[in-house]
Specification:
Chain lengths: 114, 111
């Protein structure tokens, strides 16, 4: 069974631009969560999608948004990029979601904002 | 506000000895805890979990201990192997909510 895939793996953008990251969960998994990892901050929860609906949302500004498609693939979008948005963005999938199931993580997308 | 804390950014241990990684949390509603391991250029992989109804869970060389009164959990790796060198994250959750992750501890096992 293929694992969680994320595209692109690396991305360089400039301040003010917007970016879209993609995540394909493990086949059969209906929940996708997104995290931002920065040095010294660990993994910060962005949001969780289940069956195309946002189920949980972390404490990030509205510039961060996401969506999930009927095939469970998910995208996250960051508008008006700031230097502080430079981070590793990880997505994780689970069968049913919720915080009682092991999450399977993708390799992440490394975003650099110049 | 960091609800899950890993106060040791790094730890070095000799091969064959015990590695103890620590994690503290502040939210008394947390009732499910996990440890993940992360190698460079890879996503975190699940190691072991524990629910608050237990105080210990063991899986091979890995044991997680939970002290609810102290709001503290620890991961013991015995014996430590060079392949265990990675960053370890603890995570906690309460019913219906997302996981909160710690900042990670980088473990180096010296051959």
């Amino acid at each position: 069974k293929a694992g969680v895939t994320q595209t692109p793996r690396y991305l360089i953008k400039t301040r003010g631009q917007q970016v879209t990251l993609s995540c394909s969960p493990i086949s059969g998994h209906r929940s996708v969560s997104w995290y931002q990892q920065t040095p010294g901050q660990g993994l910060q929860f962005l949001f969780e999608y289940f069956s195309e609906t946002q189920r949980n949302k972390g404490n990030f500004p509205g510039r961060f948004s996401g969506r999930q498609f009927s095939n469970s693939r998910s995208e996250m979008n960051v508008s008006t990029l700031e230097l502080g948005d430079s981070a590793l963005y990880l997505c994780a999938s689970t069968v049913l979601g919720g915080a009682r199931n092991e999450q399977f993580f993708g390799p992440g997308t490394r975003l650099t904002v110049l | 506000d960091q609800q899950v804390k890993q106060n040791s950014p790094s730890l070095s241990v000799q091969e064959g000895r015990i590695s103890i990684l620590n994690c503290d949390y502040t939210n008394s509603m947390f009732d499910y805890f996990l440890w993940y391991k992360k190698y460079p250029a890879e996503g975190p992989t699940f190691l072991i979990s524990i629910s608050s109804i237990k105080d210990k869970n063991e899986d091979g060389r890995f044991t997680v201990f939970l002290n609810k009164s102290a709001k503290h959990l620890s991961l013991h790796i015995v014996p430590s192997q060079p392949g265990d060198s990675a960053v370890y994250f603890c995570a906690a959750s309460s019913p219906g909510n997302q996981f909160y992750f710690g900042t990670g501890t980088s473990l180096t096992v010296i051959p």
